[in-house]
Design brief:
This protein is α/β, with parallel strands linked by helices and 404 residues long. It has a single domain, classed as 3-Layer(aba) Sandwich (Rossmann fold). 31% of the residues lie in helices and 18% in strands. The protein contains ten helices and 15 strands. The strands form four sheets. A seven-stranded mixed sheet has the order 4-5-6-3-9-12-13, sandwiched between helices. Strands 7-8-10-11 form a four-stranded mixed sheet. Strands 1-2 form a two-stranded antiparallel sheet. The longest helix is centred in the C-terminal third of the chain and has 25 residues.
């Protein structure tokens, strides 16, 4: 009949009404998907408290371990054994502004990693943190060196330990640039000769071994101050400290982290949790490392970023955080261990002249103002690590509960 209302006339308003009604439910479902839960180590607690923003406060208790109770401290960073007379650098603890950072609980850590494996990938900063972790674990269960099962026992760059009581394996994998590199000096000691970086290729030293690990901790940055030549698709695309220039070129630094994070994100079979330890500041004063520079302070700075080259450290830190965020947004299960501000204040916590066998360079005693005394401020890195691991465990537990 003319003038009657078509049957389909009611369908459009009804459809729009249902869309408006169901859209919030659909959005909530997407936001609580496993991928989102897994890739963001964030809870109400982390949103309320930034554990990486704080100050160093007096802490009168003894450190977790010492050079007599822990056999895993590399002589180079065993400051007390090497004659450092003061102890004030051991009497400080990191205090976030708006909450408490729990002490490291070795038993709790070992329960979280029971039956699992962890790899520290990068340069000697990763080794520094790993040795701290071994000492912390050793207060509860003794790690056994099993390196000979995987490589030659005299290979200091690749080491493996096993904790039988918890079936936990931990290793360090030397990869100072994270990408493939070719050093003109095979010993890696040629600081003045340019190293070739192949920015699109992850270093096989870690890429080929990492698939089955449950936790992977990336920690590197110190070697990016050297003369470098950057390659992409077989062609030179840039360089650093070349052609009479002393300037840093951040392009290679940024691309190296991009490649590393892309590689582990796309690595077939990898289902683990990755962490990025941000750049660890050095504190040379009165000259560079090869110009008689020292780090003789016995008190920390009261503010962040007041040390020499703080602007460079800030630029490196910003690049790392940007690449971390980009990788996490693409689905990588990723946690950020942001040590930069905290360690930037700790000019007092390096070995300095109290290192084993200070190498001579043009009759100058080379101070170590890069690595960190152990025990000391470096133990805080593992307090951060355990804190984030507990958050991830809580998130996974809540998500499983929601799925039931």
């Amino acid at each position: 009949m003319s003038g009657s209302i078509p049957k389909g006339a009611f369908l459009l308003p009804l459809t729009l009404f249902l869309i408006v009604l169901l859209l919030p439910l659909f959005r909530n479902f997407i936001q609580s998907s496993p991928k989102t839960y897994a890739s963001n180590l964030e809870t109400k607690e982390t949103r309320r408290c930034n554990i990486f923003s704080g100050n160093w406060v007096p802490y009168p208790k003894e450190p977790y371990y010492n050079n007599e109770t822990c056999p895993f401290i590399l002589d180079q960073i065993n400051c007390i054994k090497n004659g450092r007379p003061d102890r004030d650098f051991l009497k400080l603890r990191w205090k976030p502004h708006h909450c408490e950072l729990p002490l490291f609980d070795a038993t709790q850590f070992l329960e979280l990693v029971r039956g699992k494996s962890m790899a520290f990938v990068g340069d000697s900063m990763g080794r520094n943190q790993l040795e701290s972790l071994l000492c912390l674990i050793n207060t509860v269960a003794h790690p056994e060196d099993i390196t000979e099962k995987y490589t030659s026992n005299d290979n200091i760059f690749f080491r493996w330990w096993f904790v039988p009581d918890y079936n936990f394996t931990v290793t360090t994998m030397w990869s100072p640039f994270l990408v493939k590199f070719n050093d003109s000096d095979p010993t890696g000691r040629g600081f003045y000769s340019a190293t070739k970086l192949y920015l699109e290729e992850a270093d096989e030293a870690w890429r080929s071994k990492i698939k089955d690990f449950d936790f992977v901790v990336f920690s590197t940055g110190q070697w990016f101050f050297r003369p470098l030549t950057f390659y992409e698709k077989g062609q030179v695309v840039g360089c650093q400290k070349c052609e009479n220039s002393t300037e840093l070129n951040y392009y290679g630094y940024k691309k190296a982290f991009q490649t590393a994070f892309r590689t582990i994100r796309k690595l077939e079979g990898f289902k683990g949790l990755a962490f990025l330890v941000t750049h660890s500041p050095e504190h040379f004063e009165n000259g560079a490392w090869n110009e008689g520079g020292t780090c003789n302070r016995t008190k920390p700075f009261e503010e962040k970023g007041v040390y020499e080259n703080g602007d460079i450290v800030e630029a490196l830190h910003q690049i790392q955080v940007e690449e971390f965020n980009a990788a996490r947004e693409k689905g990588l299960r990723f946690g950020l261990i942001d040590i930069t501000d905290a360690m930037g204040m700790r000019a007092d916590a390096h070995p300095g002249r109290f290192r084993l066998g200070g190498n001579n360079n043009n009759n100058l005693n080379v101070n170590d103002c890069v690595h960190w005394c152990s025990p000391g401020a470096v133990d805080t890195w593992n307090e951060f690590l355990l804190y984030l691991m507990k958050l991830e465990a809580e998130i996974q537990h809540k998500h499983k509960g929601n799925m039931l």
